[in-house]
Design a protein that fits this description.
Its EC number is 3.2.1.20. This protein is an alpha/beta fold. It contains 15 helices and 18 strands. Strand 2, helix 2 (100-112) and strand 3 form a beta-alpha-beta unit. The longest helix has 17 residues, at 323-339. The chain binds alpha-D-glucopyranose.
Length: 572
């Protein structure tokens, strides 16, 4: 029972600490938000795809887990060329997931449980099947409808070369050529992602008006906030100049100081407009940015007082499991975010990256690990080690000042499914990389809830279809049902940690003071009043300093010593 807290701690109370839950102003400063990747969370209608009905049935699980908010990934109508990040209607729900009335019910139910709800906003691109794009194609070169997107004549004598050398994040050119109904090729259009995701032209006032109206639509439906997809992409350099050689190497990153399409100054004006929309509501509304900036100072510009509220901390997510790198990521983020008065949004996994349990179960790189393809080169996977480190990482993350995002399944100890059969893969990265990069499906495999064979309660009994991605048989050990009765399980560790975090006055918002006496390979910090977190990244055990009690530990303590790759929360 090592991970149980001492009984009757003076601060433990059934009262919520300072109420990240509904009612509290600026709740995003210390909320724990759970990311529901809708298509893989719970299937209510038996078609093998997660949906609103499934999520509604599992809301008690989220409430009991102890999170404050739920970020529901894409639910909009979409042809699903990129898992739904290709939207045809920003004001409706795809029938695959449910209906608008059901979304309204879901929002109410989430609020009744005292939780908040965030949804995705995808402003950089629409689906190529969005009515606007149909009008742009039909209207031909020069029509006003085309000015909502980024169309250009091709280069070369026949215009058969793309307008510039920009590359799609998913592989290949970022340009595709439109074709007239009679088959004649005409202008090219820009898509930083798949050809089914044409980029919008944010120099067009109509695009601004449309998105402000979409924000209001969902705020009026009671949504508490938005996660802004590729928040660093909407502004493009005038004239659309070619990328330099260094930018081509670093396709997905904003490394270059004046990159022609990532992290440009023009973005901030858009966010100031959105902030004014959010601030016009009496009940607080918020934004969290998925933004890649070249350093944490640049990232902090997205969360200046009149702009977005928070931004995911990808430096933390991509750090290897090494004390020095983790500490650098933590320190830099805390300093740069504090300078603009914003909280840090800690995150270890999401639907785009290799699950951290798997990353940590491999030999650790000196620098960041992000891409599955790179990650596979890093050596064999040790499940026990990855699980042990993931347990420690949960305690580290939830002890840091600020808000935190959990990705569904991390609380069950799910690993990246790296052996999905080729024919099951659905991520467009697999096709567009010419089958060299297996993409992100491995972190999107449907949740195991109960039972000992797939679909593990993901779909109702006797469902007509298998889950949209196959689940490993070994997940029978990781179902929520199995873990809920096991005090040593990952699920119980998360529950205890979230419970303590909510009740303890030192956690969430507040100061972090590093302990100056710890040696290399250890992170130790105090959170006043009376809380200490120690993480041992080394393989050997560490003698704990004097303390008043043990609140929680990621593994059993060994006669007052903290074993390797483990973390502990102490009172002192
Ligand atoms: C974001 C999403 C990712 C999607 C991309 C394009 O990075 O998280 O899943 O493929 O944007 O919309």
């Amino acid at each position: 029972m090592s991970n149980r807290p001492d009984p009757a701690l003076p601060w433990e109370t059934s009262q919520r600490r300072n109420g990240a839950r509904r009612g509290a102003v600026e709740w995003w400063h210390d909320a724990v938000c759970y990311q529901v990747y809708l298509r893989s969370f719970a299937d209510g209608n038996g078609d093998g795809v997660g949906d609103l009905a499934g999520l509604r049935r599992r809301l008690p699980y989220l409430s009991e887990l102890g999170v404050d908010a739920v970020w529901v990934n894409l639910w909009y109508p979409s042809p699903m060329a990129d898992g739904g990040y290709d939207i045809t209607d920003y004001r409706d729900i795809d029938p695959l997931f449910g209906s608008l009335p059901e979304a309204r019910t879901l929002i109410e139910e989430i609020h009744t449980l005292g939780l908040r709800i965030l949804i995705d906003l995808v402003p950089n691109h629409t689906s190529s099947q969005h009515p606007w794009f149909g009008e742009a194609l039909a209207g031909g070169p020069g029509c006003v409808e085309r000015n909502r997107y980024i169309f250009r004549p091709g280069r070369g004598s026949d215009g058969d070369l793309p307008p510039n050398n920009w590359r799609s994040v998913f592989g290949g050119s970022a340009w595709s050529r439109a074709v007239e109904p009679d088959g004649m090729p005409e202008e090219w259009y820009l898509h930083l992602f798949t050809p089914e995701q044409p980029d919008l032209n944010w120099n067009n006032a109509e695009v601004h008006r449309e998105f402000e109206s979409v924000l209001r639509f969902w705020f009026d439906h009671g949504v508490d906030g938005f996660r802004i997809d590729v928040a660093h992409a909407m502004s493009k350099a005038p004239g659309l100049p070619d990328l330099g050689p260094a930018d081509i190497e670093l396709i997905g990153s904003a490394a270059h100081p004046d990159h022609p399409h990532w992290d440009r100054e023009g973005i901030h004006e858009i966010f100031r407009g959105w902030r004014a929309v959010a601030d016009s509501y009496a009940e607080p509304r918020m934004f969290v940015a998925e933004a890649c900036a070249r350093n944490s100072e640049r990232l902090s510009r997205y969360v200046r007082p009149a702009e977005l509220h928070t931004a995911f901390n990808f430096d933390y997510l991509t750090s290897p499991w090494r004390a020095a790198q983790m500490r650098t990521a933590i320190d830099k983020s805390l300093t740069t975010m504090a300078a603009v008065g914003a909280p840090t949004a800690w995150v270890l996994s999401n639907h785009d990256v290799v699950r951290h349990l798997t990353r940590y179960g491999r030999p650790q790189a000196e620098g960041p690990v992000h891409d599955l393809a790179d990650h596979l080169l890093a050596g064999p996977f040790d499940l026990e080690l990855g699980t042990r480190r993931a347990r420690a990482a949960a305690l580290l993350t939830l002890a840091l000042p600020g808000c935190a995002y959990l990705y569904q399944g991390e609380e069950l100890g799910l690993w990246e499914v790296e052996d999905l059969p080729d024919e099951a893969l659905q991520d467009p990265i697999w096709q567009r990389s010419g089958h060299t990069n297996r993409g992100r499906d491995g972190c999107r495999v449907p949740m195991p809830w109960s039972g000992d064979t797939p679909p593990f309660g993901f779909s109702p009994d006797h469902a007509g279809s298998d889950p949209w991605l196959p689940q490993p048989q070994q997940w029978e050990r990781l179902t929520a049902q199995v873990q809920q009765d096991d005090e040593q399980s990952m699920l119980e560790l998360y529950r205890r940690a979230l419970h303590i975090r909510r009740a303890h006055p030192a956690l969430g918002k507040g100061a972090l003071l590093w302990d100056p006496t710890t040696g290399p390979g250890v992170l130790a910090f105090t959170r006043p009043p009376g809380f200490q977190c120690i993480v041992n990244f080394r393989p050997d055990a560490l003698r704990l300093p004097d303390h008043d009690g043990v609140l929680l530990s990621s593994v059993p303590l060994d006669s007052g010593r903290l074993p390797g790759d483990a973390a502990v929360w102490l009172t002192r």
